[in-house]
Design goal:
Layout (H helix, E strand, L loop, with lengths): L32 E7 L3 E4 L15 E8 L1 H4 L3 E6 L3 E4 L5 E7 L2 E8 L3 E4 L3 E5 L9 E6 L2 E8 L1 H4 L3 E6 L3 E4 L5 E7 L2 E8 L3 E4 L3 E5 L9 E5 L5 E8 L1 H4 L3 E6 L3 E4 L5 E7 L2 E8 L3 E4 L3 E5 L9 E5 L5 E8 L1 H4 L3 E6 L3 E4 L5 E7 L2 E8 L3 E4 L3 E5 L9 E5 L5 E6 L8 E7 L7 E2 L9 E4 L7 E9 L12 E4 L2
Length: 476
């Protein structure tokens, strides 16, 4: 969260501290409170007038910068600064990042980017009177997943070739148990197609979507062929209408298959005969509606179709944000083929209507909550998409008030800080032991309250001066 500072000037307060009856022999002067800083994720600043007016200079600040490689992974990465101060920034398209206005001190820098891990996970940096622009580099690695399954029975699965296409292309060979696995895959849509001489497979292929998790049980059944068999294949275009279309085969044999992400379909293991191929896809009309194909001693390819989106046909994306404490009233943003926002109802349910086919990103937000996952990519392809769900987790905000002051002009053993909730007192001692420095942080403040602070100096004999001028701290 960005740091916000609010300054309040205390005019007309006492510029000189007088001694009280207990401290007349000590000859002490109380100190004047300087800026009061509130830290709660956001921050405010209250400054008090010194008993002995001075014009202290603002502290010098510096910049901290570095890079994330490769640039494609670094671009858009969020960097968090913690330690002596806090802040966030976002890496640019080249993976470079910079924090400005950083005071002297020791900090930790931590990168985060959905779908990537980082090495190292964080870096420590010390700012000491100069900008820091070297040694703050991270390497981003895309997280990967797997697709796996089994081809049964083992007689047909053992040694079968399994082909992966779509977001990535690969081939593997099923083991002696008919099991196969593709590793190192990123999020995306894939088509898995088995093949083995002398066998047909049911289904002939399967579409698989990886979305942040491994996908298993992509299984097939192998059937031994009897005699010579052939294939009917083709393409449904454009891919927006072809991808995911259902293609039905009737005639000498029957069956159905799903066109892959490129709109390609295939029926194998077919004997000679007459067949009819009929495609269908919600939200589209197909031209021609069907085709008659004769298999006569050879494979038949290029049985192609054209898909045309039905004019005015629209769809819905919907889901639930749970629990309701974080979902109720959450703002959900839609981007991609179309944009928009929706507000989740009291049960955390949201929806976007009137959407055309296309690719969308859904991102929830609600003050005081983080969401898992942070966003989801959704493809609308001829049907409504539901269950685009998120989990909301409440964030914890801490509150504190930090005070600092100038040293007393007399020799002192330390200082006490007093706090009240009424303007002008009474005040209660806050520190549990004498403060020997010139600053103090009160971590027991509560949100929504206003506090009034004064300080007093203590000499070696335990005598205490009168109070300093009062400063006010309003905690949001």
């Amino acid at each position: 969260m960005k740091t916000q500072q609010d300054r309040y000037s205390l005019d007309g307060l006492k510029s000189q501290l007088s001694k009280n009856s207990r401290a007349r022999q000590a000859g002490l002067l109380a100190t004047a409170l300087l800026p009061v800083i509130f830290l709660w994720g956001c921050a405010g600043l209250v400054s008090g007038q010194n008993a002995q007016p001075q014009n202290p200079q603002q502290p010098q600040t510096y910049s901290v910068s570095g890079a994330i490689t490769p640039a494609a992974a670094g671009s858009g990465t969020t960097l968090t600064l913690s330690g002596a101060g806090t802040g966030t920034t976002t890496a640019d398209a080249s993976g470079n990042f910079t924090f400005t206005g950083v005071a002297n001190g020791t900090y930790a820098i931590t990168p985060s980017h959905a779908g990537y891990s980082f090495s190292p996970t964080s870096l420590s940096v010390t700012v000491n009177g100069a900008n820091v622009a070297t040694g703050l580099n991270f390497t981003a690695t895309a997280q990967s997943y797997s697709i796996s399954g089994t081809i049964s029975p083992t007689a047909g699965g053992n040694g079968a070739t399994v082909t992966l296409s779509g977001a990535a292309n690969a081939k593997t060979t099923a083991n002696s148990s008919g099991a196969y696995t593709f590793n190192g895959l990123v999020n995306g849509t894939y088509t898995v197609t088995p093949s083995q001489t002398g066998y047909t497979f049911n289904p002939t292929s399967q579409n698989v979507t990886i979305n942040g998790a491994n996908v298993g049980s992509v299984n097939f059944t192998a059937t031994a062929q009897v005699g010579q068999t052939y294939t009917i294949s083709g393409t449904i275009s454009p891919t927006a209408g072809g991808s995911g279309a259902i293609v039905t085969l009737t005639g000498t044999a029957t069956g159905s298959t799903t066109a892959n992400s490129s709109g390609v379909y295939s029926f194998s293991g077919l004997a000679n005969g007459s067949y009819t191929v009929t495609p269908s896809h919600a939200g589209y009309t197909l031209t021609p509606p069907s085709q008659t194909v004769t298999v006569n001693g050879a494979n038949v390819g290029s049985v192609n179709f054209t898909a045309t989106a039905v004019a005015g046909q629209t769809y819905t994306i919907s889901g639930t944000i749970s629990p309701t404490a974080g979902g109720s009233g959450a703002i959900v943003t839609l981007s991609g083929t179309a944009g928009g926002t929706a507000t989740a109802n009291s049960s955390g349910v949201y929806s976007f209507t009137g959407l055309a086919n296309g690719s969308y990103t859904v991102t929830p937000s609600n003050t005081g909550y983080t969401f898992t996952p942070p966003s989801q990519t959704v493809t609308v392809n001829g049907a409504n998409v539901g269950s685009v769900n998120f989990t909301a987790t409440a964030t914890t905000q801490s509150h504190s008030a930090s005070l600092s002051w100038l040293a007393s002009s007399s020799v002192v053993a330390g200082y006490n800080v007093y706090r009240g909730t009424v303007n002008g007192g009474p005040y209660t001692l806050v520190n549990t032991s004498l403060i020997t420095g010139l600053s103090f942080t009160d971590t027991s403040v509560q949100a929504g309250l206003t506090y009034y602070y004064v300080a007093a100096a203590i000499d070696q004999s335990g005598n205490e001066s009168v109070y300093s001028n009062q400063v006010t701290a309003a905690i949001p």
